[in-house]
Write a structure and sequence with these properties.
single chain; globular
């Protein structure tokens, strides 16, 4: 059974930084993509970025490009979301999720971690 556990959320001032972690277990993820999503109150869930587990290729939504960086530690089966230059509009619950590299649907999700950016 695949399990994804996010951690690292919290309260930070605008302009600050925060690093989220997503620890994955339950299988070998070499053929998977790990994605980060977020959902603010009253808004649709938004794709933030993703990384291919094997090659480490990362890509980002325009809203976070240049401010957020995704990396992974294969030995720890953990993916990170480094967030810098945070803005109040980055406030949301952040989720990690996985899908096969050949799939378009993310079928395993973490429980989410709250990030609040104060102005």
């Amino acid at each position: 059974q695949v399990q994804l556990v996010e951690s690292g959320g919290g309260l930070v001032q605008a302009g600050g930084s925060l690093r989220l972690s997503c620890a994955a277990s339950g299988r070998t993820f070499s053929n998977y993509v790990m994605g980060w999503f977020r959902q603010a109150p009253g808004k649709e869930r938004e794709f933030v970025g993703g990384i291919t587990w094997s090659a480490g290729y990362s890509y980002y939504a325009d809203s976070v490009k240049g401010r957020f960086t995704i990396s992974r530690n294969n030995a720890k089966s953990t993916v990170y979301l480094q967030m810098s230059s945070l803005k109040p509009e980055d406030t949301a619950v952040y989720y990690c999720a996985v899908r096969l590299t050949t799939a378009t649907t993310y079928n395993y999700w973490g429980q989410g971690t709250q990030v609040t950016v104060s102005s």
